[in-house]
Amino acid sequence: MSADPLAELRIRFRERARGDADALETALSDGDHDRIEELAHGLAGAAGLFGFTEVGGLAKVIDGQFAEGQRPSTAEIEALISAIRRDMATYS
Amino acid sequence: MTLSVLHVDDEPDIREVAAFSLELDSDIALTTAESGEAALTLLEGGFRPDVILLDVMMPRLDGPGVLARLRSLPGLADTPVIFMTARVQASERDRYLDLGAIGVITKPFDPMTLASQVRDLLAGRAA
Question: Which of A8, A3, A78, A90 is nearest to A52 (CA)?
Answer without folding.
Answer: A90
